[in-house]
Design brief:
Elements: H1 23-34, E1 41-43, H2 44-51, H3 55-67, E2 71-75, E3 78-81, H4 87-100, H5 129-133, H6 154-166, E4 172-173, H7 175-183, H8 189-208, E5 212-216, E6 223-227, H9 274-277, H10 328-349
Helix pairs in contact: 1-8, 2-3, 3-6, 4-6, 7-8
The protein binds a DNA duplex (15 and 15 nucleotides) through helix 3 and helix 8.
Length: about 350
DNA sequence: CATTCCCGCCATCTG
DNA sequence: CAGATGGCGGGAATG
């Protein structure tokens, strides 16, 4: 069934292709591997072996998947598989959490959770993004506390990134803006760069799950990501077949990709071939597996096409093209709002900062 | 040249 | 202390 494009390049030998090792593809493979009935737990080592990647990579996707509720840490090396069905609630929680952070004064009187996406005009306009996101910044006591490592985790970043979309009217953001917003005051070009790198990682996996989609801002040609929301089912399995229609059967389907073959960036076949150590059980979707440095003649070539690892079943990826942009004005306003909020906030803390690195 | 983002070193955090 | 985690940013692909 489906290989991706039948390798077009005749080269046939160890052709390094970055796309084959993207986090997005890995995420798709991961999902198609575990998103099925009967799965209740996921072992990191096993996952790494079966997907043919280093452990480090598994941590990356597992962290973002956990932020969305798909996985829950069980113990060292193990996670509970909650499945796609857990996503809706996770998103709701994030949403509530985001809103809760800004109207603490109102207390638990009326937890106004703007109805779905139709929050066009809420009596209480968006406050400041910093409030919604509330990423703990360096406190004066930071000098004593071991650098709050947790605060910089991919998982938290993922949550905040998502909040930016669901707790706001904006549905389109460039990673650069997102980074600036999430960084709050620490407006350091260096930090921003690193943040952006992380956001790329996150965006890639969220894209593969169709939570977001890459496009270009209508006016500015800046590449941005648009929130698509979790419309869906189609994720199959998980028993509960939702009734809602399926305007999105055309999306959300993974799989069929084979595992990420492992070769170093520089053609050289690494001596340490992770997968080989384990008894790699070829799952149905993995036509081939790496074997101790075997120059996989089976490597699937890069998508002959333009881009996007975009999942799977080729024909369905057509949904990812451009489409008429609306609300240009609204977006502009929103950005203005962001910039203002962040600016004022910046000056607000500008006095005691200067703690961080440079 | 600019953007995207993989790779894996090595600091931290468990157990 | 060994093994598990996972920041972080250099620099290689790609656009």
């Amino acid at each position: 069934m489906s290989l991706i494009s039948p390798s077009t390049s005749a080269s046939g030998s160890t052709t390094y292709c970055r796309k084959q090792k993207s986090l997005g593809l890995l995420c798709s493979n991961f999902l198609s591997l575990y998103n099925r009935e009967g799965i209740e737990t996921v072992g990191l080592d096993e996952a790494a072996a079966r997907l043919g990647v280093e452990r480090r990579r598994i941590y990356d996707i597992v962290n973002v998947l956990e932020s969305v509720g798909v996985l829950v840490r069980k113990a060292k090396n193990t996670y509970y598989w909650k499945g796609m069905g857990a996503i809706p609630k996770a998103l709701d929680d994030l949403k509530a959490e985001g809103f809760r952070n800004n109207d603490e004064q109102i207390d638990c009187k009326s937890v106004k959770v703007l109805e779905d996406d139709e929050d066009e005009r809420s009596p209480n306009p968006v406050v400041s993004v910093q409030d919604i996101v509330k990423e703990s910044i360096n406190e004066p006591s930071v000098l004593f506390k071991s650098d709050n490592r947790k605060e910089k985790s991919l998982g938290l970043l993922t949550k905040n990134f998502i909040k930016l979309f669901i707790c706001t009217k904006s549905d389109m953001l460039s990673l650069d803006d997102a980074a600036k917003i999430l960084l709050g005051e620490a407006r350091n070009p260096s930090l921003t760069r690193t943040k952006v790198r992380r956001l790329y990682d996150i965006a890639n996996v969220l894209s593969s799950m169709n939570f977001i989609e890459k496009t270009h801002h209508p006016e500015t040609r800046k590449p941005s990501f648009r929130w698509l929301g979790f419309t869906g089912q189609t994720y199959g399995q998980t028993g509960s077949a939702i009734s809602t229609v399926d305007k999105d059967l055309k999306k959300r389907a993974f799989g069929t990709e084979l595992t990420n073959i492992c070769f170093k960036r520089n053609k050289l076949v690494s001596p340490i071939d992770v997968a080989a150590e384990y008894d790699v059980k070829p799952l149905h979707l993995a036509p081939n597996q790496v074997g101790r440095s075997t120059p996989a003649s089976t490597i699937k070539s890069c998508d002959g096409d333009s881009n996007k690892v975009k999942n799977t079943h080729g024909f369905e990826s057509l949904a990812s093209t451009y489409r008429p942009q609306y609300q240009n004005q609204a977006l502009r306003d929103l950005f203005a709002h962001y910039m203002d909020a962040w600016k004022s906030w910046y000056s607000e803390v500008a006095d005691m900062d200067q703690v961080k690195v440079i």
